[in-house]
Amino acid sequence: MAANPEKLKVVSQLSRRDILFGIARVPGTARVFLASSDAGVYVADLSQPKPDFKEIGKHKSYVTSVVLAGSSVVSGGYDGRLCWWDTQKLTQVRALDAHKKWIRKLAVSPDGRALASVADDMVCRLWDAASGKLLNELRGHTEKTPHHFSSMLYACAFSPNGKHLATGDKTGHIVVWETATGRQVTTLEAPVMYTWDPVQRVHSIGGIRSLAFSGDGALLAVGGMGKVGNIDHLEAKARVEVFDWQNGKRTAEFPGDKFTGLVERLEFHPKGDWLLAAGGAMDGFLMFLDLKAKKALKQEKVQTHVHDVALNEDRDTIYAACHGRVGVFSLKG
Amino acid sequence: MAVRRNNFCGSPEHAIDRRGFLGGVAAGAAGLAGLGVLAEPAVAAEMKKQQKRCILLWLAGGASQLETWDPKPGVETGGPFSAIPTSVPGVHISELMPKMAQRMKHTCLIRSLNTRNGDHNSGAQIMIRGRRDEPNLKYPDLGAVLARELGRADSQVPDYVAFYFATEGRGSAPGSAGFLGSRYAPMELYKSMMPENIVRHKDVSDGDHKDRAELRDLLSKQFARGRVSPTLASHNEAYQRVRGLMASDKLFDVTREPQTMRDLYGPTQFGEQVLVARRLIEAGVPFVRVSRAWWDSHGQNFETHQEMVPELDHVMAALLDDLGQRGLLEHTLIITLAEFGRTPQINPSLGRDHFASAWSCSLSGCGIKGGAVWGKSDQTGNRVVDGEIGAAQLFATIYSALGINPQKHYYVGSRPVPLTDPGTKPIKAVLA
Lengths: 333, 432
Known about the structure:
Chain A contains no helices and 28 strands. By secondary structure, chain A is mainly β. In chain A, the strands form seven sheets. A six-stranded antiparallel β-sheet of chain A has the order 4-3-2-1-28-27, with no helix packed on it. A four-stranded antiparallel β-sheet of chain A has the order 5-6-7-8, with no helix packed on it. Chain A has a four-stranded antiparallel β-sheet with strand order 9-10-11-12, with no helix packed on it. Chain B is built from twelve helices and 16 strands. In chain B, the strands form five sheets. Chain B has an eight-stranded mixed β-sheet with strand order 6-5-7-1-8-11-4-12, sandwiched between helices. The longest helix of chain B is centred in the last third of the chain and has 25 residues. Chain B is globular.
């Protein structure tokens, strides 16, 4: 039975003391790896009523992203390190000092061969996912914001055929790269997602927090939040923009009407039925967006900020890494 | 309400007060154009030796102690930043402050503030005045007290300058001379680096301006005849300083600094304001407050501090170096302070909220024991476990570092009012 956002319901919500920033699911199972603020990488089987969260290893600071690459799960964190862990033996395979500043996000190419990491050193590095060998360094994001402060490189995503990779930074600047050569193919801008407050507080907030290509690779969705009035809080509406990136055209805007906060994760339904946007502020949200009708199909509050999600093959189950919680949601009709 | 303006603290040692002495020295050497009093080597040397000054870096909104002076890496509340060693063995601060870590010998940390007020408005008022107002008594803030204590009676520069460009939070802690009167009210800069209305109107000649001042003075004296009013006296003193203040515009002009010096402080608004603060201090302004808003990071605390703490670190380090090279650091107290700190608990917006139970501030330069650390918070940062102090003790320490007796009395009418609450002791362990 097809996944139906209208049927969204909570299956389970498991409380934790830490903040979970990333989640990666082992194909065909409900076994997930989690990235934690306690510097740990955890594994758990979420099909169990009371899952055991087993720590498989540690970073030196917050772990912000986990991805599966072949027989390994790779974690990246604010310590600038990438760690490979054997998904069966749960032992460390290798660890690299990959970036000089915080690693924000990892992505794996669809064929599993290339791993991308983005960090606040404003470099996207491409790695051989199997060997950990550095393949390329992609530099196209400025280290400073227009207002002389350090910028941040938050998001990355591969296209479905793996030929392209998109990266997005704090100022709303997006670069699409050719994976094989590291050549910049195009750049896009989403300036509404960057708020610089020159009068009240003289600092900035926002940025591109999530990226996703559509199933056919033609569209690139960009997530963040709109312009913020009171930048002490995440009070702007959650925002998604969609680009026909090859022609440099913005084809849809979802400025948000229900939830405030950052869109931390975007995921297209493979057939284009909907675009899932997950994120939050003090509360969290799951939004299903209809790109054809350019409206929200379903918007559901989650009890706490959602940082990442993983969907199963049928796209009818969502595993969510949240602030102090792991959530499982069903879309089964 | 009245202030016994002429007898100061009443103590015999102040029968000839330092301000009067220095004022005489300066007046003789400077003249109106002598906003460059330091151009006279003998005068400059004397002032450098004796005149103490203060720069308050007001971190409006409440900077996080955990991301600055009291890091707690590795605990649930600690956040993602690590702690780094400083030039003082055993003292660690946030990794966001590598430059200050190298200059810790000039700075003492207080890690045990419990000020019991997590509200922006009332918290800010306490932390710029050192205590709460009474229903019938409005206290002067730190700047007004230091303007009175450290300023020169015939000063040709402002005694108290406050930069506060940000709009939000400004109303929480406005500069206030309280019962000291308008003579000690701040020159507040809200929009421009240059004071507004400081330049003589183009349609008024210099001669006309002098004539008008003399006429105002004549009328004022006639009005004052037979009246005893400290408020009136304070008002008149303020007018008597107009010509000097009008000539002080050059001090606010950051473009008069060499590019190398501007590069040292950096291109940000905060950096430029602190550079102007140094120019003012060097010219004899006893107190400058530079407000850097906004640290109220209920959301994205770590992004906010990642952006703002390195700026604070850079600018503060530049200021210490610059003052040191000019021989002014040992006579200038630099304070970082806010209305409160931030909660150890991290909220779902990855923010920290208001927290006044265990937070930190720093004192650098004049009168303090560099490298000293006073007080201790617990492992999670939730409470003070050693050396707890409130605003009164902090202010007593600040006054003491500047050579001012914190138990000195002013008089409001016949009522003696001590600078800090009776019995308040400074933290001697951090005083030089």
